[in-house]
Design goal:
Layout: E1 3-8, H1 12-27, E2 31-32, E3 41-46, H2 51-70, E4 75-80, H3 81-85, E5 99-100, H4 106-112, E6 129-133, E7 135-136, H5 147-151, E8 155-156, H6 159-171, E9 176-180, E10 188-189, E11 192-193, H7 194-204, E12 209-212, H8 224-230, E13 237-239, H9 247-253, H10 259-270, E14 277-284, H11 291-303, E15 307-314, H12 322-326, H13 335-360, E16 364-369, E17 374-377, E18 388-390, E19 399-408, E20 411-416
Parallel strand pairs: 1-2, 1-3, 3-4, 4-5, 6-9, 9-12, 13-14, 14-15, 18-20
Antiparallel strand pairs: 7-8, 10-11, 16-17, 16-19, 17-18, 19-20
The structure holds iron/sulfur cluster.
């Protein structure tokens, strides 16, 4: 059986696509390898959301073309947002690729691999934490974002398709399933909402942890918190990209909510009976961002202890977006201002890490072991948030009862109890 290697760049949404690509490959008789060594096929699932992601993809592509040229017969496939954003026909310096397909284009891959029928997603490398995509594309058209251009308007998958995928993931041994999509909170099908869907999944698979990602603040489902009381296996975790809190900037971003709306939501998270952990992302140095706007953002971050993870990105003017067309270069804060603002956000994130470690120290909690010495708690998403370091070796894939002994940066340390 020949070996194939999948390289995934970007976020968990891309990992879900890679799982589907892995299914096509295994269905066609390929074995998914854990490293590129001795493989005959390399599929690169690229990200092109912002310029640094494009640069990373291009760098990897250069190395991949070298890999292909080292031995005749090697197959190189380019997939994902990069070809989705910059359609390529093999004449633009990418002649070395055997196949170029857009985001999630499993039928293009199947066709290439001469598959007759759709195949079942298989784990890419036997991961314990998996991702399930409930929709494709986004209809929000935020002023700065290329995703609607790359992936099109939002199309929600049916509950039948989603539950079937969940069944496959459960059969493959998933212990945690992350629910992903560009705008998960807006998912709707025949009048059913995202909370209904989460409830169905959690009720059908009570032993699997479910975690909801990418909740747009404007569409936050009001019945989400009560769900946490009903289903212990829905993680007390909210991934909500606020992007900014200044009304002026939010309006310019095309985000249909205000700072007050965010404060109401975060007051509710903060005062929730169940301890909640919030991950949030924001853009720094957006065109027109003044010191006053930025101070409001920092004040917001310092105000809410429920914020566990903060990720900040500098603004990048992206061709094809509304903001690209309207801004003038002087609207963008200079790079030293942006760097100093990012550093101040880093300081705020450090303070949150210290506060959370103090708050959790001495608590007993379940940690899902990702490796013998590292896991993640119910309050932290795998791969993107802090990890938990065990004081002794455990079996990966098991949920381990631990006592939290402290923290180091965004990570926690834990004593294994059983
Ligand atoms: S919600 Fe806005 S930022 Fe997020 S994917 Fe959609 S358009 Fe882009």
């Amino acid at each position: 059986m020949p070996d194939a290697f999948l390289l995934t760049l970007g976020c968990p949404k891309n990992v879900a696509d890679s799982d589907a690509f892995a299914g096509c490959l295994t269905g066609a008789g390929w074995r998914i390898a854990r490293s590129l060594e001795n493989t005959d096929l390399l599929l690169i699932n690229t990200c092109a959301f912002i310029k640094p992601a494009v640069d990373e993809s291009l760098e990897v592509i250069g190395e991949a073309l070298e890999w292909k040229n080292e031995r005749p017969g090697r197959i190189l496939i380019l997939a994902g947002c990069l070809p989705g954003r910059y359609p390529v026909d093999g004449s633009g310096g990418l002649e070395g690729f055997d196949l170029i397909i857009g985001p999630g284009d499993t039928s293009g891959l199947e066709e290439y691999l001469s598959l007759k029928s759709a195949s079942t997603p298989e784990p890419a490398g036997g991961r314990i934490s998996r991702y399930l995509k409930i929709s494709e594309g986004c209809s929000n058209n935020c002023s700065y974002c290329t995703i609607p251009l790359i992936r099109g308007a939002r199309r929600d998958r049916s509950p039948g398709e989603i539950l079937m995928d969940a069944e496959h993931l459960a059969e493959q041994g998933a212990v945690e399933i992350g629910i992903v999509g560009q705008d998960t909170a807006s998912w709707k099908y025949d009048g059913d909402s995202i909370s209904w869907l989460m409830s169905q999944l959690a009720g059908t698979y009570p032993d699997i942890w479910f975690r909801l990602y990418y909740v747009h603040p404007a569409f936050y489902p009001g019945d989400f918190l009560p769900l946490l009381a009903e289903h212990e296996n829905i993680m007390p975790y909210i991934d909500m990209p606020v992007q900014h809190v200044s009304d002026r900037i939010l309006k310019r971003m095309g985000r249909p909510y205000t700072g007050d709306h965010l404060r109401k939501l975060f007051d509710m998270f903060e005062n929730s009976e169940k301890m909640l952990s919030v991950r949030t992302t924001m853009i720094v140095g957006y065109p027109g961002e003044t010191e006053e706007d930025f101070s409001e953002l920092i004040q917001f971050l310092s105000q809410y202890r429920c914020i566990r993870t903060i990720a900040a990105f500098p603004y990048w003017p992206e061709e094809g977006t509304r903001e690209f067309d309207i801004h003038s270069p002087e609207d963008i804060p200079d790079s030293s201002t942006v760097q100093s603002r990012l550093a101040r956000i880093g300081d705020a994130a450090d303070e949150h890490n210290i506060l959370w470690a103090e708050r959790l120290e001495g608590d007993t909690m379940d940690i899902l072991a990702d490796t013998p010495l590292l896991g993640h708690s119910r309050l932290d998403a795998p791969e993107v948030d802090g990890a938990c370091c065990f004081d002794r070796s455990v079996e990966p894939g098991r949920i381990i009862r631990c006592r939290i002994t402290g923290g180091a940066g965004s990570d926690l340390t834990a004593e294994v109890l059983k």
